[in-house]
Amino acid sequence: MSIPAPFRRVLEEGDPDWVAGAAANLVVLFGRTDKARLECFTLRAIEAIDDLIETYAPLSDEREDLTEILNAQSVYAALDETGRIVLSQRLRDEARIGDEAVFLGMGDSFHIWSPEGYAAHVAERARRRAEGPDVSTLLGRARAQRPGGEA
Distance (Å, rounded) from C-alpha 83 to C-alpha 33? Predict the structure, then answer.
């Protein structure tokens, strides 16, 4: 799958070992039973997630569950010289991706969906938005959760 050029820069910036001319590395998370997609993270983003997981008590169920998901259900990948990543058949099967895929940039991560899976996701998200808080309310909650944030 070809990664859009602007997002290639995001992957390069998120790879602490990247140098000009080298392949940018990333982590591909798969197998979340609640999401039929691949979730791809910069190395810095996955480090931040690891840091969050470490806030749970050692040997706690939460820490073990999250660690298992991130380690047993992820693979490292690298862009090739043309800005593409190769999706193995296993990864394609996990996300039910056939001949076509949808790329969705998400800041320091991106999702890869089958077109049908993404359409279902968009419909579900629209239903939830119609029943729940609007975007500005959600952003206000996020701001309040930041250190020094406002309620």
Answer: 29
Give me the pLDDT at residue 3, please.
93
Q: How far apart are CA 83 and CA 8, in angstroms?
A: 7
Tell me the two tokens of residue 15.
């790879």
User: Strand, coil or helix: what is 140?
Assistant: helix
How many residues are present in the chain? Answer: 151
Q: Mean pLDDT, the chain, as a whole number?
A: 88
The single-letter code of the amino acid at 83 is G
pTM of the full predicted structure? 0.82
Alpha-carbon span 23 to 26, nearest angstrom:
10
Give φ, ψ of 135 to 5 degrees: -60, -45
Average of per-residue pLDDT across 65-77: 90
CA 132 to mean position of chain CA atoms: 24
**CB contact at 8 A, 103 and 40:** no
Of the candidates 29, 30, 27, which has an alpha carbon nearest to the alpha carbon of residue 14? 27
Q: What is the mean pLDDT of residues 14-36?
A: 88
Q: With bands split at pLDDT 50, 70 and 90, how would you rate the model's confidence at 33?
A: low
